[in-house]
Every structure is written in structure tokens, then in C-alpha cells.
Write a structure and sequence with these properties.
Strand content: under 5%
Number of strands: 0
Distance between the termini: 32 Å
Structural class: mainly alpha
Number of domains: 1
Number of helices: 9
Order of helices and strands: HHHHHHHHH
Largest sheet: none
Helix content: over 70%
């Protein structure tokens, strides 16, 4: 497979994956819709950091341990389950007594968002398994494995950033509605329920 063909083919595959609604999209939309733009971009950057780490580990052969070590996979899976359930409960218990301005009271919003996005991605073993199963198929035999793997992962990251920009822009249209505390509580409950659902799904999957 030629390099150009490999890049375009991989871009198509991960493009479909990026556009598929999931936990990442839910977190970005919820954070941006509540007016926390800095924190929303922190979530975006954290998610893409996790993607880059998984792609690099896969290219180096490290994440293949998840497919051969049951203990490694189960440990990471249950860590992810606990984190998602905890985050979902926190969202369900969130209180909004008054409307908030743009990033009101979130001086460290970018860092906090990055932590949440990175942990959500890195504690999901299915992302690692995806890269172990899919990424090697797009690396030409004569190409340097690590460098090419990182290049392809960067394509995924770039697509993720572009789609996230669309989500953040769309979420801003909801802000007038979300100025009402009741609407903000509804947003948190919907997102919290979705996050818990992803956690339960990860718990029962094999």
C-alpha cells in the first residue's frame, strides 16, 4: 500500500469513527453548551492527547499487550468503568443556581477540561484495541512503523479537532436556552445518564 493511499484510506475509516456520536461528542457538547468554552477546548485537547498516546503506543507495539494480557485489559477496563460512573454521578448531582457567563469561575477551565478528556480517552481500552487491530493494516510494509503510525494517528487527531470545532460552534447556539437553571440541570442529567450508560456498556462488554 502506497503512503498516499494509506493516509487517505485511514482518514476515511477514522473519519466515519469521528462522526459517530459517542461519549466524546457528548462531553464536548455539554461543556460548550454551558458556556464553558475554555473548558470545552480543554476536553477536546485532552481527548486528542489520548488518541495520540494510543496511536503512538500501538505503533511501538506496547498497546498490543491489551490483546494478549487479560489482566492488563481487565484492569484498564474496570478503571474506565469506575471513572465513567463517577463522572456520570457528578453530573447528575450538579447544581446550577444561576446562569453563568463565559467560563465564569473557571480560571483553570482549560486544564480541568484537558484532564477530563484525557482520562476519558486513556481509560477506554477499546480505543487501544481499535488501534492495535486497525492501524497496522494501513502501514505500508516498507515504511518505518513508528513514524508512519504516528503520522496516521495525527490524521485522526486533525479530523477530531475539526469535528470538535463544529460541535463547539453548534453548542453555542444552545446557550440562550441554557441560561435557565432548569435547562442546565436537564443538560447535566441527560449527559450524566449518557456517561453512566457508556460506563455500564463498558462494564458488561467483553
Amino acid at each position: 500500500m502506497e503512503m498516499t493511499s494509506a493516509v487517505w484510506s485511514f482518514a476515511l475509516v477514522v473519519g466515519v469513527l469521528t462522526l459517530t456520536p459517542g461519549l466524546d461528542s457528548a462531553l464536548i457538547l455539554r461543556t460548550a453548551a454551558l458556556g464553558e468554552r475554555r473548558r470545552a477546548w480543554g476536553v477536546v485537547l485532552g481527548i486528542q492527547t489520548g488518541t495520540l498516546v494510543w496511536g503512538t503506543l500501538s505503533s511501538a507495539g506496547v498497546s498490543a499487550l491489551l490483546t494478549v494480557s487479560r489482566v492488563a485489559y481487565e484492569t484498564l477496563r474496570w478503571a474506565g468503568v469506575c471513572y465513567l460512573l463517577w463522572m456520570g454521578v457528578q453530573l447528575l448531582r450538579a447544581r446550577h443556581a444561576e446562569p453563568e457567563g463565559e467560563d465564569r469561575g473557571t480560571g483553570g477551565g482549560l486544564g480541568e477540561g484537558w484532564r477530563r478528556g484525557a482520562l476519558t480517552n486513556l481509560l477506554n481500552p477499546k480505543v487501544g484495541v481499535f488501534y492495535v487491530a486497525v492501524l497496522p493494516q494501513f502501514i505500508p510494509r516498507t515504511a518505518p512503523h513508528l513514524a508512519t503510525g504516528v503520522l496516521l494517528t495525527s490524521v485522526h487527531v486533525a479530523e477530531g479537532l475539526l469535528w470538535s470545532a463544529v460541535l463547539v460552534a453548534f453548542a453555542r447556539t444552545l446557550r440562550s436556552w441554557l441560561r435557565r437553571p432548569s435547562a442546565r440541570r436537564l443538560m447535566d442529567r441527560v449527559t450524566g445518564t449518557a456517561v453512566i450508560g457508556f460506563g455500564v456498556k463498558l462494564a458488561v462488554s467483553d
